[in-house]
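We treat protein structure as text, and this decision shapes the records that our systems exchange. Because each token names a local backbone shape, the row as a whole describes the fold. An entry from our holdings is shown next, in its original layout:
>
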Amino acid sequence: MTSSTRFTVTVAMIVALGGFLMGFDASVISGVVGFIEIEFELSKIQLGWSVASLTLTATLAMMVAGPVSDRIGRRPVLKIAAALFAVSAIASALAPNFVTLVIARMVGGLGVGAALIIAPMYIAEIAPAEIRGRMVSFNQLNIVIGISVAFFSNYLILTLGQSDSAWAQSLHFGEWSWRWMLGIETLPAILYFLALMIVPESPRWLAMRGREDEALQILEKVSGPEQARANIREVHDSLTARQDGQPGSLSQLFRPAMRLVLTIGVAVAILQQITGINSVFFYAPMIFEQSGIGTDASFMQAILVGITNLVFTIAAMALIDRLGRRPLLVFGLTGIAVCMLTLSYGFASATYTLSQKSIDALPAAIDRQLIEPMADTSFDSDVAFRNAVSDAVGKDIFKQHESELVSAAISMNPTLILIGILGFVASFAVSLGPVMWVLFSELFPNALRGIAISFVGLINSAVSFGVQLVFPWELENLGNAGTFLIYGIFALIGLVVVMRLLPETKGRTLEELETLLVRN
């Protein structure tokens, strides 16, 4: 590895720590929802709100992060994001009620939105064209690592909460398990803030602000003096070639010349979320519990989701600059559609029957006299079963013991569900996960990149918010089979759109892509 490559990789890895915090902050809630639903007596919509509230403010942050970074620089925005992550983690862990928890999560959402937009933008602006795909993918890799660490730390804290060791009991892992799950993020947030101190400002941002000497010094460390001077000339030419010479604005994003890149950006932004990835990441234990394996096993299988995500994200990083962006998306979307339809079939084929023997084995808190009239009654739908049991024993009791009741009644192949979920995550991780952010960093011209990425990121986050908010409601009212069928249909639609619209972008400089895609 040359010294210039080593410098680029080091800077990219530090900046991409924002992705780690984003992944951790977003997915740690998967282990929390079961606890806060009972402790704060939440409805399904409130439960969805506790998850989606982070994405709501992330959406708002995405709307302003790009323009703000155009004014004050990429690095200051990332440092603000790091501070917001730390504040959110501490406030979430100490939250005395549901409203405070939601507010704390919304503070973290501001950090998520800023990091999600600015980190890949910064990396794309500093990395040479021949390794840009891999470097930008560092951000997605760190998101994935953050998700995996969140799943593992949730399982570890859950295990420590059941431990008899004195030190674990003294730290109240059992009593405060969900608070520990949320609070542990403080440590990497502080580390990220400190590490950003040694990161330089984006050279393309410096060049756009007229600070070409500073930009040249940084680019020389990345690609050598000759290429650095060529890059500075390209940035200068791309800015002076614009018709009005004014700073980038939202109205310019909707010029006819921008129609192709904007359509691609919006389509990919919607597609990444509408296929249900955050439903899986944020509600993984809940989904696995629906297959009847129990709470502890569901947390353990959630770890497999994180590991699969990590392995296939690394595979995407190895392939994205060799095969290109388009082939990965076509392959991944095909896999997503197949796996979601498999999940729909798996849950649709399940039956639910409480035998007298299984009723006798239920927790003592469930009144046998209330549920025994249901003995040996079969249900072909998870919705019908849940409604019948909830009506029999009461909503509060059912909510507290839903996992045990489903496990006692369900008859299905849980391995099929595990394979479907892991296959879906693998397909996403090798395609939509990293490729979307690489495309966002490549498609838009220099002068509009900040505001353009904020705009498509806003759409991506808004769709994510909606998906997360309604997922518990969908499971309760549409059932598992219907919910995953919807995701599969969206994946098939997205596959057609990608095959019709998306050109290949690998191996070209940002300025070459601007000439190719922006049709004046």
Q: What stands out?
A: The longest strand covers residues 351-353. Residues 10 and 199 are 9 Å apart (CA to CA).
